[in-house]
Amino acid sequence: MRGGYFHATCTFFALASLLASGDDFTPQVDFCVAINNPNGNGAYFSNGELCKNAEAAKAEDFYFSGLDATRETDNRVGSTITLLSTNQIPGLDGLSLARTDYAPNGGLNPPHIHPHATEILTLLRGILHVGFITSSPENRLITKTLHPGDVFVFPIGLIHYQLNTANNSALAINSFSSKNPGVITIANAIFGSHPPHNREILAKAFQLNTDTINFLQQRFKGNQ
Amino acid sequence: MRGGYFHATCTFFALASLLASGDDFTPQVDFCVAINNPNGNGAYFSNGELCKNAEAAKAEDFYFSGLDATRETDNRVGSTITLLSTNQIPGLDGLSLARTDYAPNGGLNPPHIHPHATEILTLLRGILHVGFITSSPENRLITKTLHPGDVFVFPIGLIHYQLNTANNSALAINSFSSKNPGVITIANAIFGSHPPHNREILAKAFQLNTDTINFLQQRFKGNQ
Amino acid sequence: MRGGYFHATCTFFALASLLASGDDFTPQVDFCVAINNPNGNGAYFSNGELCKNAEAAKAEDFYFSGLDATRETDNRVGSTITLLSTNQIPGLDGLSLARTDYAPNGGLNPPHIHPHATEILTLLRGILHVGFITSSPENRLITKTLHPGDVFVFPIGLIHYQLNTANNSALAINSFSSKNPGVITIANAIFGSHPPHNREILAKAFQLNTDTINFLQQRFKGNQ
Amino acid sequence: MRGGYFHATCTFFALASLLASGDDFTPQVDFCVAINNPNGNGAYFSNGELCKNAEAAKAEDFYFSGLDATRETDNRVGSTITLLSTNQIPGLDGLSLARTDYAPNGGLNPPHIHPHATEILTLLRGILHVGFITSSPENRLITKTLHPGDVFVFPIGLIHYQLNTANNSALAINSFSSKNPGVITIANAIFGSHPPHNREILAKAFQLNTDTINFLQQRFKGNQ
Amino acid sequence: MRGGYFHATCTFFALASLLASGDDFTPQVDFCVAINNPNGNGAYFSNGELCKNAEAAKAEDFYFSGLDATRETDNRVGSTITLLSTNQIPGLDGLSLARTDYAPNGGLNPPHIHPHATEILTLLRGILHVGFITSSPENRLITKTLHPGDVFVFPIGLIHYQLNTANNSALAINSFSSKNPGVITIANAIFGSHPPHNREILAKAFQLNTDTINFLQQRFKGNQ
Amino acid sequence: MRGGYFHATCTFFALASLLASGDDFTPQVDFCVAINNPNGNGAYFSNGELCKNAEAAKAEDFYFSGLDATRETDNRVGSTITLLSTNQIPGLDGLSLARTDYAPNGGLNPPHIHPHATEILTLLRGILHVGFITSSPENRLITKTLHPGDVFVFPIGLIHYQLNTANNSALAINSFSSKNPGVITIANAIFGSHPPHNREILAKAFQLNTDTINFLQQRFKGNQ
């Protein structure tokens, strides 16, 4: 009962300060070091917005070790993204970093969108065929083949992909302009949604018969 | 006693994360679904910034029914605004919507300011004489008469009004560029404030004698 | 020759002021009234960011007439969007408005994303089956059936669609939280890009054979 | 003819860069030093957004002399505001400064709004009765009497005023949170607009008869 | 136990609402009045982002008295800054104010940076030799000598200083474009850090031998 | 003469649109591809804010080749930064990338500040001793030793450095949260400014005699 009272009080305080922040966006502290969530409240905490007192910040809060370790790519598309978020680096803010491993001969990072970030890809190993689609001019495809030492920019909010055409594995370092780039993988969202989309809608939108839609929904089921 | 301890802890956390957000403004979740405040802590909660876990979001959180119902306009100015805020649509963010009903033959939405939003008015029924006043060039009045199917823009922060000159009631749909447009109704703020303004100040500012100011303060008393 | 000199000078000035604007984002004028581009320099000008002197602004700059006129929906998907941008309302800023007409019995506004805006849809006529897909939790589909007077919110950056299930035409008013919501129609971007995507990439990404991909690319060709 | 060509080209360039600036707001230069407009194109240039090459910046661009000189207050309300904008300090950005002189025994800075800035007033001489009106809670008046050495904050977008009740003149330093605070003086905008407002609208909004409105419109005519 | 449960719940709520605020930055309340922190959680609360219910706001929340009192300057550099933050004015937001007192004949405000704010200095008494260093063009020094009534602007993020060359004390009013300008005093950060910097690094960076570095670290020890 | 007329016209247009952009910050185009400046107007253009028509964008505009090439580190501090700006990648926006090469046994990237960006450093080769200094708590030094595969974050606006302690050369990839991180190298700004600082000021600020200041100013002269 008393607990309920205090709960109400503190959410009230939290909101008050949030709502009033519209007027002055200058950062009020040097950095935000995310603290672990002892109660498993999920995704929000993994974004690291829950900060510790700056007095308690330590070097390890700004540090990650092991980005040089190769990742397994034995999955359907043949690629694995390792994103460093505030789960890995509590002191991260303003941008984020990832490494992407691609299987030899066709490892694919399939068409997807990062709604919150522009991406810079730096290729360290392999040969990548990359592309993105512009919205204005409408649906224009821009592609390039990358070799080690090449750098490529994928603008914020546009559909893009990478394919490894080398017969050895590929490795890229990805920099994002937000601590939380976000991702929408097109095929998974369209054909692997839960619950599944109405088949008539997808059939009309994608000009496929409902049997093909049904086949695709089976294939992508459980991707989420 | 322990409750008090937890209360302090959690407001500290909430602030820490707020203060540190100055560096990276990209949204970190798809949306914010406001949750009801069980303890009536007031205005802040009606802004809906207290969000539920995205896992618990449901279609109803993004839905409102009944905007087509005509509202009563039997009041002094002869108009009624029905604003959809996060009280009505918990998942609302980034903009807001309203309908305005006007009485026949002179229903008036009196001179007011939305400090946080530009407004687009779409007229569905009636004839509206509308206007706004620019600050630069100083005090220039821009007016227009609107008929059904007409759309008009009222720029953010400028004094504006609408008057229904049709002999039937009028209906407009209002879109605002903020989830919280805010409103300052000039006559109510000046003559209906509580406590009332010093009469000498209003007399000097508005070039009226103190008796007229007194008369007006009586008329507008209790408008808040 | 002198003309070239002045051109260089003025682009330099324009940039200087742009680059320096990072420090103070408060609007410095009441509004921006777009002026027509006499030289057909294209999309940028249609965004209306080229403003006229405020002294020259007139009521018509904030006005549009004819949003009540029904639009033709005789096209493959059976829907037509009429967006009011600064081409139609030069004084528009901060948000935008559209009407969407849907054909009876299956008029579809197919899956698409507005990268820059949250959308509020107000249904005036017809019955719409609507839905959007969340990115977190991953690929969750949220759907609702709307009737006249219903309002629904589509969060910024998420894939969404509407289908008219009534046997009469449907009409919706759409409000967007940006003057430039932008749009990426998924099927057109994936299968109708120019030049077409590499078939092996789409076949692998969408789990279809290259013949089906070829079929789809023929179907969507020329959609741009 | 060629001149016309270059004009079109350069406005195109300027716009292109402006429109693309939505993604990255970090200032790209140390400061913007406004340059004078040789052609009197008005307010825009006086805002100082037209910057000179940083190489050419000099100490005088960040300097103003004479804020200590007393200003004349022999006008109807008995107060004079001296705002330092980029007309006076070309290198100004992010905030602005003013001095306000008040006549003895009733010098008034009448009810007005700064739509773009919070104000901090520092009183150096005189006795000021000050107040502002909140919008939430609606129309609440908050007042205070200030003496030399006192500081008072007027929140952004709220109606506020100051009255000198001392029998000597008063002097205040005003700091604003924007380089362009903007101002809407309520009485002038309502009763002194050009063209004048429709009397029936003001009579209904302010609960005055049209004769009084007519009288007020005559009084405030020519204030702009 | 139950207390722990509620603590988890409320931090979760607070974060949810914070994370979702990326989409709509318009202020949702008139102002934020900071409330005192009863549990001494430190710096975050002194930034005043913990707001009270607007219903409870009172004039004193926007008020400070005594900025006219002269401050002691008997310290090593011969200057004292008195900053008004939300500790002194709970209702402060969007900008801040300070007074700086300088000792006669060489009172110095040593080279420092305000990472979050542009500063406007208004000199009321004394003679100040002031300067700042640009980053582009690289390391250019811009200086000026100020007399009473002079105003000078120090752009955001640049190293700057002031020296009183008068044989009487000096007094300046400082306005900042953020409620939290922040400060990095160069000599203290470099030579007075705790723990001290590695001497070889400073010796190489500043082209001094390690004995001089050691001497300086002793001199600046305990400045923090 | 006519050329002068067009110049005035077009800078006016450019400013008008800039000033009005305060209300709506959503990007209005997919990206900005910087175009080369044919007239050498300098730094502003190297920031790439002058964009080409999106129709003319090509893959090469988003591409850079050769980041894998080792750079020479034979300079006084023993390190070389290679920053990819819009000079190298015209389509860059929202973030930037660099490689830093360090000489064996003491290659130093001396204490400096990036006023506009948080930095993520990824170490590929060598052993780096790194550190940064917080402003709150005041002048606290946080250090770490990095090995290949390690990642470290340097928060925006804080003084930081890196020293290679390996007996082979070191290589790091640097990601920045702005397309224009900016840099202020402390020792160069303080002792290498042009014109030089007044020696008495530096002597008092750094607790050194004027002979040592003179010696340092000679050493750092011509660093700009």
Outline:
With 224 residues, chain A is of the alpha+beta class. The first copy, chain A, has 5 helices and 11 strands; from the N terminus they run ααβββββββββββααα.
Please characterize this protein's 3D structure.
Six copies of one chain form a homohexamer. Chain A has 224 residues and is α+β, with helices and mostly antiparallel strands. Chain A has five helices and eleven strands. In chain A, strand 6 (128-134) and strand 7 form a beta hairpin. In chain A, helix 4 (199-206) crosses helix 5. The longest helix of chain A is centred in the first third of the chain and has 18 residues, at 2-19. The radius of gyration of chain A is 21 Å and the shape is globular. The two termini of chain A are 39 Å apart. Chains in contact: A-B, A-C, A-D, A-E, A-F, B-C, B-D, B-E, B-F, C-D, C-E, C-F, D-E, D-F, E-F. At the A-F interface, strand 1, strand 5, strand 7, strand 8 and strand 10 of A face strand 1, strand 5, strand 7, strand 8 and strand 10 of F. Strand 1 (63-65) of chain D pairs antiparallel with strand 8 (150-154) of chain E.
Task: Please name the defining characteristics of this protein.
disulfide bond (chains A, B, C, D, E, F); globular; five-stranded antiparallel beta sheet; manganese (chains A, B, C, D, E, F); 224 residues; 11 strands; disordered N terminus; 5 helices; alpha+beta; homohexamer
